[in-house]
Every structure is written in structure tokens, then in C-alpha cells.
């Protein structure tokens, strides 16, 4: 591979029993099936893990931190139940950037369009207007409830079998689960290099990539990673309009619902978080 291609390589990790891997698609995406080392990441612009189900070593975390500090990018996607269900320890990396994937699930509170309640149709979930602008759906002025409900401007996406995120004030929440669903025990994306965290690794699988406007969402994410064209709106970043966290009883026994204490710095109920530079 020549130098130009190396500098824009996207590397999809498969060494931690990830739920999803990449065998084709982007021709500049490669798979890493071995332990993460600095040598393996030479020339890699973006490292991705999609639902890791094994623990990372201290040495691997150190490599990833240095990789990020060197101006490279990381995309982490988990699933409902968060870290505990996946038996991984990725939070040891994420918590340093003020983001955590909660041990919960997001469900809708009404039936609409998709059969499973954990396949949540979100039509008013963009928290930062720059995301809409970059996708071609400009939302001028301050984002308010009226503009959120304008389907001609709002991005609609399907959030599948995902968890919420706890996003502290040092990070920026940019996607929200919306008003048609309740998190089952918490928020959903989160920016160095750049770091993004998504609470669902099933949202952008091949089967659902072209559902609603999921492709536009992931295109914006990759555009944010690979270019400097996207600058998050600072007003929206500092004061996102997020609903209070609402917890539903767990009737299946798969998730705890033992209560939740509010933290003043916590931006509740987001689904995609970015650490601030």
C-alpha cells in the first residue's frame, strides 16, 4: 500500500470478538485480528471497534491513548446492556474523555413502524444543528421544540438494540433518543484526535444502513473524522436540550433498575457523544 493510502486507512478491530466485522465495503478499511500495538496502527487514520466482547489489556489501552493523542481518531460502538453485558472493559478508555455507555437499553413507548420495541424510530434526535447542516438538512436559528418536530429539516434514524450514554460536561452529546421512547436504566454519540462513541453497534449494519436516514448519520460521522469541514455549534454543545432521564421497570431481569442519582454536570439521554477538543 502506498503512503497516501496508508495515511487514510480505516482499521476495523476484530481481535476482541466484536459482534460485527468488515469483510468488504470501503476499500481502504482493513481488519486487525491481532493484539493492538503501535506498529499495527502505523498509517491508520481511524480505528473502529463494533461491540467488543473481550477485555483490552493495559498495554493496548496505552497504545490507543497514544494513538489518539497523536491526532488519530477512534470510533467505539457498543450495544444494549453496555460494558457489563459485553464483558469488556472499554470504559477504562472512554471515562478519561467524559463518556460512559450505560448498562441499559433504549425502548420506544409507542408502536410505530418497526416491530421490535428496541428498534426505535427517532425523528427529532439531533442535538447539534451542525449535524443537520452537514447532512444537507440545514436547521437555521436556535434548535427548539418546533424546529425539532419539523420532519422536513430533522434527521430521522433507527436506533437499534442500543444503550444510552452518560456524557459529562467535558464532552458533547450530538444525538438524542427523542421523545417517542424512554431509556430503560439512561443517554445515545460523543471528540485530540477525535473520539466518537455510539451506544448501538446494530444501527449501521448492512440491513439497516439504508433504513430512514441512517446512512446520512454515518456519512456525517465519517466526514467529521476524515475532514475539518464539520465544526460543532458551540451554543448547542454547551446547552443541549435533553429530556430528564426516565427509567422503566425491567420485567425481563436482563437489566437492573435500582434507581439513578442525578449529577449536575451530566448531560442526560444522549446517544452519540464527542469529547470536546
TrEMBL record:
GO annotation, cellular component aspect: centriole; cilium; intraciliary transport particle B
UniProt domain IFT52 GIFT: residue ranges: 9-238
Domain of life, source organism: Eukaryota
One Pfam entry name: IFT52_GIFT
GO BP, sorted A to Z: cilium assembly; intraciliary transport
Entries under PANTHER family matching the protein: INTRAFLAGELLAR TRANSPORT PROTEIN 52 HOMOLOG, NGD5/OSM-6/IFT52
Protein name: IFT52 GIFT domain-containing protein
Amino acid at each position: 500500500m502506498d503512503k497516501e493510502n496508508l495515511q487514510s486507512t480505516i482499521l476495523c478491530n476484530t481481535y476482541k470478538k466484536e459482534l460485527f466485522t468488515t469483510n468488504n465495503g470501503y476499500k481502504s478499511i482493513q481488519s486487525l485480528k491481532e493484539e493492538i500495538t503501535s506498529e499495527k496502527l502505523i498509517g491508520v487514520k481511524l480505528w473502529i471497534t463494533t461491540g467488543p466482547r473481550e477485555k483490552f489489556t493495559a498495554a493496548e489501552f496505552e497504545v490507543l491513548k497514544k494513538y489518539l493523542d497523536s491526532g488519530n481518531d477512534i470510533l467505539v460502538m457498543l450495544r444494549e446492556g453496555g460494558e457489563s453485558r459485553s464483558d469488556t472493559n472499554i470504559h477504562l478508555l472512554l471515562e478519561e474523555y467524559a463518556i460512559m455507555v450505560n448498562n441499559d437499553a433504549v425502548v420506544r413507548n409507542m408502536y410505530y413502524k418497526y416491530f421490535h420495541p428496541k428498534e426505535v424510530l427517532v425523528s427529532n434526535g439531533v442535538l447539534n444543528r451542525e449535524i443537520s447542516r452537514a447532512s444537507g438538512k440545514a436547521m437555521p436559528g436556535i434548535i427548539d421544540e418546533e424546529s425539532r418536530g419539523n420532519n422536513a429539516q430533522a434527521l430521522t434514524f433507527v436506533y437499534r438494540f442500543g444503550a444510552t450514554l452518560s456524557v459529562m460536561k467535558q464532552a458533547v452529546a450530538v444525538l438524542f433518543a427523542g421523545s417517542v421512547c424512554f431509556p430503560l436504566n439512561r443517554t445515545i454519540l460523543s471528540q485530540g484526535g477525535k473520539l466518537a462513541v455510539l451506544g448501538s453497534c446494530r444501527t449501521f449494519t448492512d440491513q439497516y444502513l439504508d433504513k430512514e436516514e441512517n446512512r446520512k448519520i454515518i456519512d456525517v460521522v465519517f466526514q467529521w473524522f476524515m475532514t475539518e469541514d464539520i465544526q460543532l455549534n458551540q451554543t448547542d454543545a454547551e446547552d443541549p436540550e435533553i429530556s430528564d432521564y426516565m427509567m422503566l421497570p425491567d420485567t425481563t431481569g436482563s437489566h437492573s433498575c435500582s434507581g439513578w442519582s442525578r449529577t449536575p454536570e451530566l448531560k442526560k439521554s444522549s446517544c452519540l457523544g464527542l469529547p470536546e477538543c
